[in-house]
Amino acid sequence: MLTAAIEALHVQHPGRFLTDVRTPCPALFEHSPYITPLMDAEARHIECHYPLIQQSNQLPYHFIHGYVRHLAGQLGIFLEPAAFRGNIHLHSAELAAPSLVRTLTGSEEPYWIVCAGGKYDFTIKWWHRRRWQEVIDHFHGRLRFVQTGEKGHYHPPLQNVVDVRGATTLRELLLLVYHAAGVLCPVTLLMHLAAAVPTGGGLRPCVVVAGGREPPHWEAYPGHRFLHTVGALPCCSNGGCWRARTVPVGDNAENDAPARLCLRPQPSGLPECMEMIEPRHVIDAIEWHCRPGKPDTQPIYSSTRHESERRATYS
User: What integer best gives the mean pLDDT of the chain?
Assistant: First the structure.
């Protein structure tokens, strides 16, 4: 999200500022034409925030506006997002190298990325492993999936996938997204990268299992299938609930406090808003993205299952 603010600053005020960043994720800013290496002593330091999130249930703004508006206020200038996405730059040498999946498998077969877990501080975003697997199994033999996930987070292994969990740097993950035909994930980094990483043209397909934690207008991007339940339950009837965990984890973290826990946990271990999203909903969303004749989308299936068979499987 901060990459979008830096881009907006230079697009709308060209030549007026030099910018550098201090961030735990410097790889996101590599090769950006908007970054100039600066010494701390020769620059003004601005600690960036996105306070707009506190009004996300009431106002029609996207996460992209968060850092942009905060930076505008700090500098006393007018600033709006330059595009509806983050701003990621890839070097020609990176683009010319074989994709990680091709290196691992020897195949150029198109693939979708799947992220089937998340961080322990926000377990309310998790969907059940068996549900992710049901989606993967439905497309077995038709669509390749590559499973990603940061080491140390919760990412249970799936079957019939190319497993690169904990095996990529952030820069390698950007390139994995660049070569991907689509992305399947909860509300997490990958959905933002699906929009921010350049494509050869058109919008990169992305299916997001979102539930009721965040209002869709704050998170969703054009062309994405954002599967949410906001408005369907009392706890998210007026926007996202913004809770952190489904049940206590027991680590004495602030997210274990009752005020941060799901109001409607289910016996399955899921919050009700995530349980309401069934594998068939996700399958249909992926099928929609990959339907024959969709603009700017190449066919990715080597064969197709008869529609009546698919309906019978999930009736």
Answer: 92
